[in-house]
Structures are given as structure tokens and as C-alpha cells.
Amino acid sequence: MVSKKTTWESILPSCFKPKLSKPKPKPKQSEPKRVQVVPNSPQRLSISDLSNAGSDVSMNDISSSVIGAYLHSFTLDELRVITSSFSYSSNFIGEGGFGAVYKGFINDKFRVGLKAQTVAVKVLDLDGPQGHNEWLAEVIFLGQLRHPNLVKLIGYCCENEQRVLVYEYMAKGNLDNQLFRRNSVALSWLTRIKIALGAAKGLNFLHEESKPVIFRDFKAANILLDASFKAKLSDFGFARDGPDGDKSHITTEHILGTKGYVAPEYVMTGHLTIMSDVYSFGVVLLELLTGRRSMDKSRPRREHSLVEWARPLIKDPRKIDMIMDPRLEGQYSAQGAKIAAMLAYQCLSHQPKTRPTMRTAVKTLESIMKMNDIPRHFVYEVPKDEVKNLNGQNGNRLRHYALQKRLGDYGFDSPKHKNR
């Protein structure tokens, strides 16, 4: 029996432009039946099941579609209310490859079945690098996939030429900003491992789907963080379904991704596998360990590429301290850092088959979270009788005395230190 190819028109029938020639009316009984999709089931609809994925979308609403049955369809007028007319001064969050992102709020009276919540509204930049296909990919993947470490897509808007996506709001923004934004508070060791673990769980879920999903653009900017720093993967515009059957890879027409994160074999051959994501995960793990960007041309030339600079060092446990983020101030598990560095080294292997699975990465990071050998800062407390006089005439002398006492007991002038 030959199976009929599912089309976007059969799933989102009201979202496509009609042909130029006026079609003849058809009797109701001849209309194609819609395909029913159960999220996360073996029958999950994938992009590879669809034809005409590049078709233009019309102004028509798609709320009656099958994918729409799991999401809310918003109008532009509704989104204006939610975002205070897309206010730049009070609601603008940031901007990425897809377009601008605005903060919004939905109250409990907005719509039946939609709870009161803060949301993030992402508006496609019609002149930007992404477009219709990326919007469709986001809807098809996040309209069906549900996992604690994937950002939740609440709904979408397909009106006129506008393409909008509405997500749950993530209070801490993305990992890129938390790690690298100027004046940001340094993330603690356990917070960094927690983020890496959450992201690893998200990738592992995608890779172990009955139809594996290759994220393809895994990077710090696509890892969102909630108020408790729980990590969730976002931006599925470049995601692809993995190879079917006995195929070892899929071949893409264009190499997509972000420089510094893309696996070398994908760049050279165009062959894409789940191990391409594992390589990208290794880069992000390095960023968490070092506090350095994957690409940074403000550094000396040999340190422009984080992977090229760090990879020779992380394979030697004795050199791990040389690559650790100085903002951690030594407050990290020495054993945990060595294990995390070795995991990153394995993920960055030039041979895709020798890289660990994301399931292995999850187990490794879970073991690091349990380690409690994090050193504590020593704080010297000045005696109360000395504090009273610190701002008096003898202030300088007492401060000097306190400093000498500290150095004598714990510093380089101590007999204990000299006898080492």
C-alpha cells in the first residue's frame, strides 16, 4: 500500500495562499481529512513528512489546524494588547536572528483555557536572515514536543505577512547574557553545572525521540534560563529530523549554525548527525568552565577560538586550573572541574563516533552536581577593640597590624609557608 505524502496544506489548510486561478468548488465529501497528531508519540509529525514546506503563508488564521489544536492562535490586535503595542521603552527584551522579542502579560480573563502568565513575544524580522521556513519549523517542533528542558511554545500569529511566536517568559534571559554581559554577576560553580545539566537533558530528549531531532544551532544564546536558572532550549528554526532507517546522516543544502559552535565534519562535508549537537554542547560546556566566548577576536590571535586554545589544556588534568574562569575565584570542585573538562574534551573529538551520547553527558553532570569538595573563602574578622579605633588616629597602624597578623597566620610571611 502506498502512503500518501502529507502536505502543509492538509495540516494548516487556512494558512496558505490560494492559487492564482480560481479553483472550482468541490463537494464537502471530497475534502481531504486532517491528520491527527499525538505529541511525543511514534506518529509525531516531522518536517520530513511534509511537502511544500517552503510555500508562502497567507493572512488567514490557522487556529483550526491540527498543530493549532495544541497551541493558541493570536491575532495582531491581541498581541498589541499583551505587549502594550510592542512598546520599546517598557516591553522590549532583546533581538536575535529571528527578530525582536517583547515581554507581555496575559491576564486570566484573556481567553478560556489560557492561564494568566507573563510571556515572551518574538516577532519575525521580515528583512532578517530567518523567515517562513524557520517559523514553520518552530511551530511543527515545539507544537508537539514537550519537555521540562525545552521552552514552551504557547501560541503563534500568522496574519498578513507577520509571523509571531509566543513563549513562556524566562526571567533570567539567555546563558550568553548571563555569562558574558558586562557587569553581570558571575555564575557560581553549581549554577553553571545545573545549566549544563538542564541543557544536556533537553538535547538528550531530542536525540532519543522515536524520530530523532537534531537541534543544529546549540549555543549559549539559545539556552534560556528561568528565575531559578533552570535551562531550556529555544529557537528551533534550524532544527532538523535525524536520518531514517539505516542512514547514518542527513545532508543539508546549506551549512547553518553559528561560527565557533558548528562541528567540523558538518562544515567540511555537510553531513549532519546528532553527534553534531554533541560537539556544540562541548563548546558551551567550555564556555561555562572558562567564562570565555566560543569566538573572541579581542583576545590574542591564538586565543580567538576557544576550542583551539583550550582543547590542548583540558586533556591534561594538571592544567585544568589554567582554563577555569577567574571570576569563580577558585570556588569550584577541583575533581568536578576535571571531570567536566574531560567530558568537554570527549564531546569535541574530531571523530563523531567517539563522542559520548547526551545520555552519558547527563549522567556525568549529575555526578558532578553531587560533589561537595568546593572550598570556602577565608574571612579574617578584626577584633572588636580594633574596630573601634580603625577610624581614629591609630587607624592606619591598626589596619597595618591586622594585615600583618593575617599574613603571618595565613599568608606568605608565615613560618608554615616558608618551610614548605
Automatic annotation (TrEMBL):
ATP binds at K122. Its EC number is 2.7.11.1. Gene3D superfamilies: Phosphorylase Kinase, domain 1, Transferase(Phosphotransferase) domain 1. InterPro entries: Kinase-like_dom_sf (IPR011009), Plant_Ser_Thr_Prot_Kinase (IPR050823), Prot_kinase_dom (IPR000719), Protein_kinase_ATP_BS (IPR017441), Ser-Thr/Tyr_kinase_cat_dom (IPR001245). It is found in: Cell membrane. Residues 87-369 form the Protein kinase domain. Residues 1-41 are annotated as: Disordered. SUPFAM superfamilies: Protein kinase-like (PK-like). Pfam families: PK_Tyr_Ser-Thr. Keywords: ATP-binding, Cell membrane, Kinase, Membrane, Nucleotide-binding, Transferase. It catalyses: L-seryl-[protein] + ATP = O-phospho-L-seryl-[protein] + ADP + H(+); L-threonyl-[protein] + ATP = O-phospho-L-threonyl-[protein] + ADP + H(+). The keyword Cytoplasm does not apply. GO terms for cellular component: plasma membrane. Signal peptide: none annotated. Transmembrane segments: none annotated. GO terms for molecular function: ATP binding; protein serine/threonine kinase activity. This is non-specific serine/threonine protein kinase. The lineage of its organism: Eukaryota, Viridiplantae, Streptophyta, Embryophyta, Tracheophyta.
